[in-house]
Amino acid sequence: MMDWDKLRVFHAVAEAGSFTRAGDELGLSQSAVSRKISALEDTAAAPLFHRHARGLILTEQGELLYRTVREVFAKLAMVEGQLAENKDHPKGQLKVTATVGLGSFWLAPRIGEFADLYPDVSVDLVLDDKELDLSMREADVAIRLIPPRQAELVQRHLMTIRNFIYASPAYVERYGVPQSIPDLDNHKIVVYGDESRPPVPELNWLLTIGAPEDQPRRPVLTVNNVYAILRAVQSGLGIATFAKFMGEEQHGLVQVLPEVEGPRFEAYFVYPEELRNSKRIQVFRDFLLRKVAEADL
Which residue in 171, 95, 76, 104 sits closest to 140, CA to CA? Predict the structure, then answer.
């Protein structure tokens, strides 16, 4: 029978890739962590890690054990959260993931109000343009720009995101304002790098609108982070497309070709079916829906 304490240490080491980092997280010495892993390997009668100078790599047997332990610990974390709150009082940690743009510019500024309303709920906001695996409890809730494909996930439409074109006053003073869609051929454009897999397929519509299908415009800069695109545009480097809430909340940007609107993106509030009755998720969902209703998106 494998010891739970040793499995907990194994899980930490597999996540950290190092005895030292796992020990720091667990409050144990490096030698204590090493002893527990050696004891677990004796019980399993198999090596669990390849040890080398740059760190630790799971063996085939280690990968098998890690997948199982990771799933068990994810389930335990879910149960722990459910036990921590009662039916009428939301309490505990709520891990939320969203894209960098939506999370930074729309969601994060509203978390303070939510925290005032529900002081016993601690929000852990993880911003990443890649999708985290909710089934493996990498997050409790996701705000996604593409509907989930997994049947075990619950989804609720949250908002429609409208996109327009923006530039800085410095850019406009130096290069002028595009007067028409074809005039975009004569301007510097900043976009999200295609190789980085934009969070939605049509995010770089500024390169193709009004251009021949086989001759998209060439950008002056591609970058895999919406905040970096914003900073580049603010510096006067070029023009870019932003969600309306980004362009209007950032002082110093000028909307150009205001009659031109890009593709609209739908945002969804997503969580696992097994968390359907979580009070933390219910109040967070209802809070966001109220904020959407109050906003001009």
Answer: 95
The tokens for 175 are: 């290069």
How far apart are alpha carbons 294 and 297 in whole angstroms? Answer: 9
Residue 206 and residue 182 share a domain: yes
Characterize the bridge pairing of strands 121-127 and 190-192. Answer: unpaired
Domain-ending residue, one of 28, 48, 82: 82
Question: Residue 92 pLDDT > 90, yes or no?
Answer: no
Model confidence pLDDT, tens digit, residues 278-287: 899 999 999 9
Residue span of the structural domain in which 184 resides = 163-263
Q: Which of 12, 10, 75 is nearest to 44 (CA)?
A: 10
CA 171 to chain centre: 31
Number of structural domains found in the chain: 3
Single pTM value for the model: 0.70
Q: For the residues 51-74, what does the mean pLDDT come to?
A: 85
